[in-house]
Design brief:
Layout: H1 2-19, E1 21-27, H2 32-45, E2 49-55, H3 58-66, E3 72-75, H4 81-84, E4 91-105, E5 114-115, H5 117-124, H6 134-137, E6 151-155, H7 160-172, H8 174-179, E7 192-194, H9 196-206, E8 210-215, H10 216-221, E9 228-230, E10 236-237, H11 241-249, E11 273-281, H12 287-300, E12 314-315, H13 318-328
Parallel strand pairs: 1-2, 1-3, 5-9, 6-7, 6-8
Antiparallel strand pairs: 3-11, 4-8, 4-11, 4-12, 9-10
Amino acid sequence: MKKLLILALTGVLATVASAQMLINGAGATFPQPIYTKWFDEYSKVDTSVRFNYQGIGSGGGQKQILSETVDFGASDGPMSDENLAKAPRTLWHIPTVAGAVVVSYNLPGNPKLKLDGATLANIYLGKITKWNDPAITAQNSGVDLPAQDIVVVHRSDGSGTSYIFTDYLSNVSSEWKEKVGKNTSVNWPAGLGGKGNAGVAGQVKQSPGAIGYVELAYAKQNSLPYADMKNFSGAYITPSIESVVEALATATIPADFRFSMVNPPGAKAYPIAGATWLLVYQQQKDAAKGKKLVEFLKWAFTDGEKMAASLDYAPLPANVQDRVLKQIALISY
């Protein structure tokens, strides 16, 4: 009897699983913690749909949505006009949350460091190679910095986190802007590569003397220290939800929602912050999937946004949420 009940229950579960609609997405690892939370919570709201999201980096997300091998893409860097022109139909940027890209490191005793943009750019240009370089020690009075080699770590994949980071470095360093520039992938002058935010965090954690850039949640999950960064106003700011909200408040957000928020003028604004976007076609090919995707998006911008702070992301301001909801209402299927 017990075996029959188990077999019957297995059959029911298999039937339910097979009846679920699967919506596929791929792209940025920067927002993956909150997207994972959203998809899990939404599965309790609508049991007929399941989301499969692959964190392959923003570059991969852009490529897959352009080739329509996924139902939605995700990117932390807005797509270029050139890339958007490759889309078979109108492709929209739907901003979801904003977050901090933090500068993490692996030093004895994990001291709290302060850095400015010029110093960080010179580290990534390979011009500053020791932790006790005068440019670093001058900003960190009282901190015993070792005469240790700096191991630079960067992303190896096409990455929106890299886009935000290189956008910032281009903003604060004319040499970086001229020699390297900003993009999801660049020709890095120095360092080791790690795949995804998790890969960079792992490289930093296991490499003495390392420095790397990751989304705030990944630094916290891996117990990595991260630097206070000097902002446009000259203050050293700790990355936090509050300092990202300050940065987001200064952003000018156009009708197509493609914008940058690095190195903003706010006195309390963290300088290396960015938004992240879902990439969604205005005209959905599959009517059933399109309907379910729109229903999810409406939930995300009402109930989902309330979960952002608990995972170290800044929710969109209420007026921007309203604008996004109006855009979502125009998705056709």
